[in-house]
Design goal:
- It contains 3 helices and 6 strands.
- It is an alpha+beta fold.
- The protein has a 6-stranded antiparallel β-sheet, with helices on one face.
- The radius of gyration is 18 Å and the shape is elongated.
């Protein structure tokens, strides 16, 4: 008996957990665009590999030339990567003059995973944990700096 490929399995599970998804027009594009709890995600998945990459891009940003906020963000992203299972990164958008925040996860995604629907939901919820961590720590650093300057 042949099992479903990883991409096909992901599409099946996304449907089971109530996620609407869109596929790109180009056949060679392996991305899957979907929403989960109001957040927009991108998955890279192919039937040839047993791992998927999940991305939550541009979920926050700061002004590029706000040197204090940028310094805080770099520190907080390092802390987030030590304290969360998803990786948090930033990119610089010169045109928009912003520093954009993104999260990424690479996970094994095979039919042998017990309760695979819950497994995927648990991983997606980790992105929200990372969001909360970054926002909370940014606020803590700002408050601490304000208290030191008063």
């Amino acid at each position: 008996m042949e099992t479903e490929g990883t991409r096909d399995l992901l599409l099946t599970i996304l449907t089971k957990i109530g996620c609407q998804y869109e596929l790109p027009k180009e056949d060679e594009d392996e991305r899957i665009f979907f929403a989960y709890q109001g957040e927009h995600f991108i998955a890279n998945a192919t039937n040839a590999l047993r791992f998927i990459q999940l991305w939550d891009t541009h979920w926050d940003h700061i002004e590029l030339y706000d040197i204090d906020d940028f310094a805080r963000l770099k520190k907080v992203i390092n802390m987030a990567n030590l304290n969360n299972s998803v990786m948090t990164v930033y990119t610089i958008d010169e045109e928009a003059k912003t520093v954009d925040v993104h999260c990424k996860s690479t996970i094994l995604f095979i039919p042998e995973i017990p309760d695979i629907e819950d497994f995927l939901k648990l991983e997606l919820n980790e992105f929200f944990r990372a969001h909360q961590f970054v926002k909370l720590e940014m606020a803590k650093l700002r408050d601490k700096e304000i208290a030191l300057n008063n």
